[in-house]
From TrEMBL:
<dbReference type="Pfam" id="PF03413">
    <property type="entry name" value="PepSY"/>
</dbReference>
<feature type="domain" description="PepSY">
    <location>
        <begin position="56"/>
        <end position="110"/>
    </location>
</feature>
<dbReference type="InterPro" id="IPR025711">
    <property type="entry name" value="PepSY"/>
</dbReference>
<keyword id="KW-0732">Signal</keyword>
<feature type="signal peptide">
    <location>
        <begin position="1"/>
        <end position="26"/>
    </location>
</feature>
<protein>
    <submittedName>
        <fullName>PepSY domain-containing protein</fullName>
    </submittedName>
</protein>
Length: 115
């Protein structure tokens, strides 16, 4: 079902959705929320895509599905050691959670964890 929802959406919108799905927890007392941080993350992801530092999310999901079966339940884009990494979590029909980490530019599998 997620695959059907993601395929027609523009890549930029997919990035926005991926970063905005997590609820804000505990807004700061001064009245500012985490919205500023979210906006910065969205902008950084958009720029990384435009600069060719990351592949479109649709391509990453297609590559991940070659290695993992199940429903996609979470996607994160992180920067570690100077490179971008997509972290995708899938839930298997058995209920097992599989986390797959892919290099965001080369789409090489970095890590495949079964929780």
């Amino acid at each position: 079902m997620i695959k059907k929802l993601l395929s027609p959406l523009p890549t930029a919108l997919v990035f926005l959705l991926a970063f905005s799905l997590a609820p804000s927890i505990g807004a700061p007392v001064d009245g500012n929320s985490d919205d500023d941080d979210d906006a910065l993350e969205h902008e950084q992801a958009r720029l990384a895509l435009e600069q060719g530092l990351v592949r479109p999310l649709e391509e990453i999901i297609a590559e991940a599905r070659k290695h993992v079966q199940g429903d996609l339940i979470e996607v994160e884009l992180e920067r570690e050691d100077g490179r971008y990494i997509y972290e995708l979590e899938f839930i298997q029909p058995s209920g097992q959670i599989i986390e797959l980490q892919l290099d965001a530019k080369s789409m090489a599998i970095i890590e495949d964890d079964a929780d």
